[in-house]
Design brief:
alpha+beta, seven-stranded antiparallel sheet, 7 strands, globular
Length: 139
Amino acid sequence: MSFVMDEQERAAFLADVHIGVIAIERPGKGPLAVPVWYGYHPGGDVQVWMDRRSHKFTAISAAGRFSLVAQVETVPYKYVSVEGPVVSTEPPTREEALALAIRYVGERRGTEYVDGALDDGSVLVRMRPERWLSNDQGK
């Protein structure tokens, strides 16, 4: 029996709300691995909003790619991991920032977060998924 998700299952899982963990290669060090809010729609790019002055963005700029894993930490355990190249790093629109923040904390808190965090240092990093790994222990 295989626990691997099919293409539709893994895309739907990644599109659900999970805290993601990105991992970014760093020369001479272990990968930088940090939790993030992310956005994804099946068939699209993974989106992560961050600050241009952050360690995440410095590492992503140097590596040109990253991995992201999303998981369920309760039985039955599930995860999806995607890896791919960065395809753009542009400032997010207010609407893009709101979509990410509201996805995680709701409209009121998301709007408050965007009002305090969206600034000239903001960047929306888009990654095109090339490689997928998945596991669904509920299968």
